[in-house]
């Protein structure tokens, strides 16, 4: 499980917006990201690059798994795991009751 980001969502959104705004002032996108990361105190430029790429995916400008799709996949995986556990419990109960039905009963 990924650990929560130490950066607030609003800071992340602001940083992504700033990269888009200042990009024309720099020779490369990386240089713009580096400047914004330094200005906002973001640990590494790579962190900001990931935010920018995810924003591009979420907005349809780049192929990939959106944030919403990732959340849906995570929820589905959790549900599948819960269903598998429930299925195992039901199988165990069914075999227990089948054994009970097959066992000869004595009347007193």
Report on the structure:
The chain is an all-alpha fold. The protein is built from four helices and no strands. The longest helix is centred in the C-terminal third of the chain and has 36 residues, at 67-102. The radius of gyration is 26 Å and the shape is rod-shaped.
Shape: rod-shaped
Described by strand count, sense and barrel closure, the largest sheet is: none
Secondary structure: number of strands: 0
Regions with pLDDT < 50 over 5+ consecutive residues? none
| Series of H and E elements | HHHH
How far apart the termini lie comes to: 58 Å
Number of helices: 4
What is the C-alpha radius of gyration, as a whole number of Å?
26 Å
- Please report which band the strand proportion falls in: under 5%, 5-15%, 15-25%, 25-35%, 35-45% or over 45%: under 5%
pLDDT averaged residue by residue? 93
The helix fraction, in percent, is over 70%
Structural class: mainly alpha
Ordered list of secondary-structure elements with their pairings:
Blueprint: H1 9-22, H2 29-40, H3 45-58, H4 67-102
Descriptors for this entry?
108 residues, 70% helix
Task: Give me a quick take on this structure.
The protein has 108 residues and is mainly α.
């Amino acid at each position: 499980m990924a650990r929560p980001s130490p950066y607030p969502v609003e800071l992340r959104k602001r940083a992504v917006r700033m990269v888009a705004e200042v990009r024309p002032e720099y020779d490369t996108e990386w240089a713009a990201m580096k400047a914004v990361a330094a200005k906002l105190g973001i640990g590494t430029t790579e962190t900001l690059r990931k935010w920018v790429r995810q924003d591009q995916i979420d907005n349809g400008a780049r192929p990939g798994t959106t944030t919403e799709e990732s959340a849906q996949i995570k929820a589905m995986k959790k549900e599948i795991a819960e269903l598998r556990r429930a299925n195992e419990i039901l199988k165990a109960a069914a075999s227990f009751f089948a054994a009970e039905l097959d066992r000869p009963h004595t009347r007193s």
